[in-house]
């Protein structure tokens, strides 16, 4: 696509970028804008119902138990391989 098909020439982009840079808000203005955006996003947050919260908690606990089992199995397997290669364990 050429710049004519897009509808802007390269010079227009440079001029717009310079204008945007000149219109940039001050440090305090950017902080205020950030806080306004944070508040707007927090208004979108919904708290889960009691049933959902219990369900999410059980899912997380189940996942943690599964991961603990995987790590334990890997630890046992690597321990067995180490004893097999190097000899008796260090009890």
From TrEMBL:
| One of the GO BP terms on file | intracellular protein transmembrane transport
Q: What does this protein do?
A: Essential subunit of the Sec protein translocation channel SecYEG. Clamps together the 2 halves of SecY. May contact the channel plug during translocation.
Q: What is this protein called?
A: Protein translocase subunit SecE
Q: Does the keyword Acetylation apply?
A: no
Q: Which InterPro entries match?
A: SecE_bac, SecE_sf, Translocase_SecE/Sec61-g
Q: Chief localization class?
A: membrane
Its organism's taxonomic lineage begins at: Bacteria, Bacillati, Actinomycetota, Actinomycetes, Micrococcales
GO: which molecular function terms? protein transmembrane transporter activity
Subunit structure of this entry? Component of the Sec protein translocase complex. Heterotrimer consisting of SecY, SecE and SecG subunits. The heterotrimers can form oligomers, although 1 heterotrimer is thought to be able to translocate proteins. Interacts with the ribosome. Interacts with SecDF, and other proteins may be involved. Interacts with SecA.
Q: Where in the cell is it found?
A: Cell membrane; Membrane
By its UniProt entry, which PANTHER family does this protein fall under? Answer: PROTEIN TRANSLOCASE SUBUNIT SECE
Transmembrane ranges, per UniProt, are 53-74
Name the gene behind this protein: secE
Determine if Zinc is one of this entry's keywords: no
Q: So which domain of life are we looking at? A: Bacteria
Which keywords appear in this protein's UniProt record, sorted alphabetically? Cell membrane, Membrane, Protein transport, Translocation, Transmembrane, Transmembrane helix, Transport
Gene Ontology cellular-component annotations: plasma membrane
UniProt topology in membrane: Single-pass membrane protein
Say which family it is in: Belongs to the SecE/SEC61-gamma family.
